[in-house]
Amino acid sequence: MRFVILTGLSGAGKTQTVRNLEDLGFFCVDNLPPVLIPKFAEACYQSNGNIDRIALVIDIRGGKFFDDLFESLTYLKDEGYEYEILFLEASDKVLIKRYKESRRKHPLAPEGRVVNGIETERRKLKDVRERADHIINTSKLSARELTEEINNIYGEEGQIETKLVITVLSFGFKYGIPVDSDLVFDVRFLPNPFYIPELKKYSGNDQPVRDYVLDFEGTKVFIEKLQDMLQFLIPNYKKEGKRQLIVSIGCTGGRHRSVAIANRIYEILGRNGYNVNIDHRDINEDVNRGDGKL
């Protein structure tokens, strides 16, 4: 089990770090009173492996409860529970700038100057910092660089490379473009199987429609160019820390052309080793509604 206590200065990046840890499979609990750490640790260690990566955010927001931290850490050590402390910090200048931009009050100086709150917090956290296993200064780190730091420390082998999940989504334009789309491609330039009587009743999941759509030269060229574009974009999205990519392919009703082409792109990406899902949002909409053009 990996048991991480995340702490540090307010404004140093704990919120983003928690998101990074969650993406790496950690069960995260924010602002747990330190006095409850022993009970929580016991429950986790007795979960028979159901919970094996835990991160607790313990910081100065706990007020007087924060003073119980060392007592709880001593208990963990005496009972043989292994843990590690991740401490985040930043320079006074950077922290002040972040507070001014967010317009938030410092928890230790709600009615006073931020700089005074930072000074008090540094003093209160001095002993915790000295016991930290990892210290990250976020003063000069971008969001992507902080994510890389967390991945380097806590990511398991192969986890970083496979963290991007791609969903190829077919849809019908007449039902609206999916709001979570990252990339949208319109395949209504292709002949519509809806107007072929023997194909109308089928969908792009069926071989007759699949063969009809994929046999056009325009389809082949489109798929080739789209494949080239995705091969270029995906590594760059991963480099920037993107974890989910929605590639939406639309035709009129989302039953024939978009489905066949989405399936083909899904197959290509899967063969290239990407973590990819397929979803046909509107494949049955026209059938259920008895609407016209597909």
Please render the helix and strand layout as text.
Blueprint (H helix, E strand, L loop, with lengths): L1 E7 L5 H10 L3 E4 L6 H9 L7 E5 L11 H10 L5 E6 L2 H11 L11 H17 L3 E4 L5 H12 L10 E8 L10 E4 L10 H4 L6 H8 L2 H23 L4 E8 L5 H15 L3 E6 L4 H5 L5
Parallel strand pairs: 1-3, 1-4, 2-3, 4-5, 6-8, 6-9, 7-8
Helix pairs in contact: 1-6, 4-5, 8-10, 9-10
Task: Provide key terms for this protein.
294 residues; alpha/beta; Rossmann fold; 2 domains; four-stranded parallel β-sheet; 42% helix
Describe the structure.
With 294 residues, the chain is α/β, with parallel strands linked by helices. It has 2 domains: 2-154, Rossmann fold (3-Layer(aba) Sandwich), CATH 3.40.50.300; 165-289, no CATH class. It has helices at 14-23, 37-45, 69-78, 92-102, 114-130, 143-154, 197-200, 207-214, 217-239, 257-271, 285-289; strands at 2-8, 27-30, 53-57, 84-89, 134-137, 165-172, 183-186, 244-251, 275-280. Strands 2-3-1-4-5 form a 5-stranded parallel β-sheet, sandwiched between helices. The chain has a 4-stranded parallel β-sheet with strand order 7-8-6-9, covered by helices on one side. Helix 8 crosses helix 10. It is elongated. Mean pLDDT is 88; it is low at 158-162. This is RNase adapter RapZ.
